[in-house]
Amino acid sequence: MAKKIPMRQCVGCGEMKNKRDMMRVLKTAEDSIILDKTGRKNGRGAYLCRDRECLRKACRNKGLERSLKTGIPQEIYESLEREFEEGEDAGET
């Protein structure tokens, strides 16, 4: 039997994609918002395509805030965007 591929919906563009192809944004127990590169940390997660445009869409449509059930200050979006850029520079696509 074929193994089921876990799918997640991007909070930016709304597309369903393979969980491994996406970035997980996490709200920890301490209410901090971080990028979970392993996808295994504890906390409430939301998924984004590995595309800066999806991060911008999630910022505009408040998709991350809805998914994480918390307000997200602009500096958090800026730090997530920097982390996205670092991931792109490291050869991740």
> What composes the largest sheet?
3 strands, antiparallel
Work out the count of structural domains.
1
Q: For the terminal residues, how far apart are their CA atoms?
A: 30 Å
* Approximate shape: globular
What does this structure look like?
The mean pLDDT is 87. It is built from 3 helices and 5 strands. The protein has 93 residues and is an alpha+beta fold. It is 33% helix and 24% strand. The chain starts with 6 loop residues before the first strand and ends with a helix. Helix 1 (52-60) runs antiparallel to helix 3 (74-89). It is globular and about 45 Å long. It has one domain: Hypothetical Cytosolic Protein, Chain: A (2-Layer Sandwich), CATH 3.30.1230.10.
Topology, please?
Blueprint: E1 7-9, E2 16-18, E3 22-27, E4 33-36, E5 44-49, H1 52-60, H2 63-68, H3 74-89
Antiparallel strand pairs: 1-2, 3-4, 3-5
Helix pairs in contact: 1-3
Q: Tags for this entry?
A:
93 residues, globular, 3 helices, Hypothetical Cytosolic Protein, Chain: A, 5 strands, 33% helix, alpha+beta
Give the structure's gist in a few sentences.
Helix content is 33%, strand content 24%.
